[in-house]
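#random but structural
TW: two for the price of one
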Amino acid sequence: MSAEATNPEARPEARPELRRRGRTRIDLRRLGRAALLGPTPRDRLPDAIGHVAEAHRAHHPDADLSVLRRAYLLAETSHRGQMRKSGEPYITHPLAVTLILAELGAETTTLTASLLHDTVEDTEVTLDQVRAEFGDEVAFIVDGVTKVEKIDYGAAAEPETFRKMLVATGNDVRVMSIKLADRLHNMRTLGVMRPEKQARIAKVTRDVLIPLAERLGVQALKTELEDLVFAILHPEEYEHTRALIAAHAGESDPLPGIADSVRAVLRDAGIAAEVQVRPRHFVSVHRVALKRGELRGSDFGRILVLVGENADCYGVLGELHTCFTPVVSEFKDFIAAPKFNLYQSLHTAVATPEGYVAEVIVRTRQMHRVAEAGVVALGNPYATAAAAAATATGSASAASAAAEAADGDEERVDPTRPGWLARLLDWQRSAPDPDTFWSGLRAELAQDREITVFRADGGTLGLPAGASCIDAAYAQYGEAAHGCIGARVNGRLTSLGSRLSDGDTVQLLLAQDSSSGPAADWLDHARTQAARIAISSWLESHPDGPKPTTTPARAPLSVVGARGGGANAVADLPDAPVRLAGCCTPVPPDVVAGFVVRGGAVTVHRVECAAVAQMRSLGRTSVAVHWRATADCRVTLLAESFGRPHLLADLTEAIARQGVEVVSATVEPPVEQRVRHTYTLQLPDAAGLPALMRAMRDVPGVYDVSRA
């Protein structure tokens, strides 16, 4: 099934079936009539399921098809006499759903469950019968689909409906794969229903099922569902887009010629590649039209380049950017940084001498399979490596063993990246009511990009793009994050509201006081639903708890002591006064440089100080400087901490215990519980500076001490 070349017709007067490019359209009515003729001889598959077997063998040549034959016979017998609203025998529906999954490359267990997915709900077949005949794994999936099918999809029931759906499908993503294929076939045949019911089903599909398909990476289903929903909910825009595509079909298409040029370039470079022209689907054309206005011939499709190895992808990219003019703003590397739904490809765009701009997608064949089928391409994501191959070929013993291993803990390991499904399941349990869950689910599914940040202990956290340190705190610590008072990002102290970027390292700092709690303004920075629900719950249960405070502006507090002796640096300029620069406060044995400034004085800087380059650019006279034999020195230190009572007293006491004199001290007003102290200190011996900085860091609440 193509994820891009689709041609939806969703209204009653049009044919609802979508043709796969290059394949003969399958007549589901004919298949239904064949199903009613009863079972075929045991030595071959029924004609009605022959298309499924052919599609399945294309992806799994060694698959055991006998289990599919048995599943089909049970489904056909149990559904015999039932009819769909379209007038077709009911068996055509599970056949069509199974064919969709077979073309995506689903493994045998999923196809078996797909054939049987309506039997337990709509016929006299029991789940125990399915388990006895096909094993625990198939029964587990059929049970999950049955629970989803029992959910009332009425408009008023939407919040609770999808909470139940998430719980029912959360333990096995294959349940959702079958549900998506089921919805796709229902959308294809929606024309027999009343317009108002079509619109209601299309809205549910748009709001939840399409984002779930995107999350699972099943682009082939997602794009076709988008087109069908587009035709129902936006008929005028759909007609306009169809007219644009029809008009383009009568014009000369530049993309085949560009594809031929790409083939020639790669052939000359010795890169084995398959080059295809992929037409855009309806919604994609509509989006491009909104973005670019008037469409040109090259805007109706993209060029797809398939290669064998990852390294070949970058080889293709180099040749394209060498032989064509690249559009730099269109380049994206989803191989080095895969998308949250397993998607990997290189995206670029090149301009031809004729003035056309063609978008190009470069990926390996394995990446292409995953891009089309997403989690369906994983086979059985819950089986062990040893059992996966047997499960793919329909081995009942392997499937049963995998099911027992998975059911041991009742909750299966989340195969999605980076675990968004498990995250949804976690916070839906904490959602206080269905409406909160519903709004949170829609917000979560609307996230189109994920980032990965590293924890201080070496672990990782998966968060939506734009997440803050607050989100990271709740993702790592749960409700214990109520006591979070600050964070370090990439080693530097920062506020809790700071946004995180992909690859950041975050260290979260928790208060020792168990009575600490979040402030109401945390909700302004929380992006994830888990954080927002936890913060809101705490604030509701602690109405007298912390509230956002605004600190009035005031002058910094300064404490000035007796000034120490003169500088202990000597310049090779007789009688010139010497002073140590306050910007870098050099101390022995720092390597220093001196410059003559106004008044004939010599200012001494550390050589790595930024002011050194500025002095040289201004043409200041450079003077050699050396340290006196005396070991005393003056230095400026910055201490960053979280506000608490008696902090200034504890810091000055720690400094005094080291035998150091405080020349001056400045304490800035607290900002988001953070306090910045600046100390100018006179040390009796420069060698004691490291010990002094360690002593200051040991003061409770102090998280960073550095040279100015």
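TW: number two ↓
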Amino acid sequence: MVMAEQPAASNGPQEPGSFNALGSEPSAYLRQHAYNPVHWQPFGDEAFALAAARDVPVFLSIGYAACHWCHVMAHESFEDQDTADYLNAHFVAIKVDREERPDVDSVYMAATQAISGEGGWPMSVFLTPEGLAFHAGTYFPPAPLPGRPSFRQVLEAVREAWLERRDAVEQNARGLAAGMGDAQAAAAVVLDAVPQPFDAGLLAAAVRQLARTEDPDDGGFGRAPKFPPSSVLEFLIRHAAVPSETSDAARDMAGRTLAAMARSALRDQLDGGFARYSVTADWSVPHFEKMLYDNAQLVRAYAHWVRLGGDAVFPAAEAAAVASEAAAWMIDALGLDSGAEGAEAEGGLASSLDADTVVGGVHREGATYLWSPAQLEEALGPDDGPAVARLMDVAGRGTVSADGSPLHPGRSFNAAEAGLWERSRPVLLAARSRRTQPERDDKVVAGWNGLAVAALAEAGAILEEPRFIRAAENIAGYLHRVHWGAGPSRGDGPGRPRLSRVSHEGTARGIGGLLEDYAFCADGMLALYAVTGRARWYGFAQELLTEAAARFAAGGRLSDSAGESGQVLRAQGEQPSLDPFDNAAPSGAAAFAGALLSSAAYSGSHGQRVMAGNILNLLPPIATRAPRVAGWLLATGQAALAGPLEAAVAGPDGPLRRELHRRLLLSPSPGLVIAVQGPDDGGQVPEQEPVPLLEHRSAAADGSPQVYLCRDMVCRRPVASLAELEEQLAAMTGSPTDTGER
């Protein structure tokens, strides 16, 4: 974003809230609004106390740094002096970065959807000084449009209702909060119940329901706009790995969607990163922001497709290139290195790149990424330029704006086309690098970096790219060093350890992590341990899971947050909230269940397995009713049915042990966890970080390495050759033993 160099001038002492208070906030999104004439306040008790003292409602605006329509509303309304004057006179205006405060975003999104029937960002919510929502919407234009009032009309109507019908406003707000609280109580996950078993038929039914909503021509599910169905893809890939009546259908759906996205404008054909979503069904017109959470999930999905073996529609070799390029993009474009020579992502990964590029002080959506036929010819010459324009569906009339079109092949290439693109791509990438680039939001979000750790570790192992594994370890080290530490004191000594959700410039700031942060990070550490054998990552995962259970499972009910805000709690009827459905990232509950299952397979913990089973009790009512928003829960259920299958690799490091370990890492079995004595452990797990699955596992009598394959900690005889390992894996997983393309 383009920001002023100096804060607005002050005319002497002012009352609290009579000036814009966002200038010192670390959030890039809040600082984008620091010089609006609106007297924005950060979310917190002080702002709500000010509203109570002034006896005015709160206007709550929620968005994020890479959001195109947030920029539009800011320019049209929040930068307008007359609008700002009206807001300042009759409301207390609060600005929230949804990526830093998803707890705030979640409850008021639910309220917005209940009030208006729509949701999205920017989100515009009107609250009582107690934090209860009574009117809401999303984007409001500066002038009325058909079916949508202007922002000024909304402000005036809300003020009139507040002054003339206060009792009705407050009664409706209390009723909405009570209704939201009742819904949360009815859907609560009780963690000390007896888990109810479910069978494979439930997952097969979910596959059939997904098939009914699939777009077999363009890939994906439903109609435009289309978002990458990352969690659903993970479920389909896992389901395809276990032979059943629906495994082929799952493979086909996953392959069609992965291929369609890879060959479209959703994927940046020059640098490999994926955009947030497409406004068209054929993925040809992306919404250009690039988010860490999307790319981390997609790297993992494409790497898992390679591990599955691919298919004729989308070969594993093509998927490997897609996964590799997207992983490299995450490291290169979002990596926050420490400044040390050769360092990679030692400061974690940034959150996003903006949808807009600021050119001449004007926000232009996707301007960095658009091409016209003339620009392609200028860069590539009179022969290759027009040929690439045809190849990439760039015509005289731009698909996004007059500036041009994104590169959208929409299909695979033949040999000649592949050669043309191979020589053209670096030229176009160099030409594009000379353009103004979109801004980056440099905040580090713990959970999203946890997703990246898992993706980079597994992609590095499957694709044999050590750079990705090094980056995963660097990010994991940053999370442990910066985000993990003692929480606030409770007055009786040091606080419990906690995971901070966000850091800026190497310093943790703001609220503690939410359930999703703990779950994503724990899952990432377990994946990293399976790849590296370094027991410190297993130990960190155990600390995270232990603390998550203490914070989010208090009283026997699971919740997404630990009560960071009184206003949020009141807005949801004084009930802790839990959203079992996936959004842009997996639901915290589903991810927690998955991490608990993996951890229990390593440790044998009955308590962790029961807790995971109780979360999976959510599956029966939603598996077939709403599988598109329950992908990670379905994927976890698939792992629960296929496992736990435990593999312990024991014995000295060397070529044979590395071959055995790699074969396990290439197994697509969804219930498999892998323990290996780490290269830095001298063949022994450090006493302070024991991995129970490795206890009493030793090398063969002749000193060579061997693998113990176990189910529920009951092991078969150890095997010391690849052939024997293949045989046991096939017998215990029921999955194909070949790793080539299918």
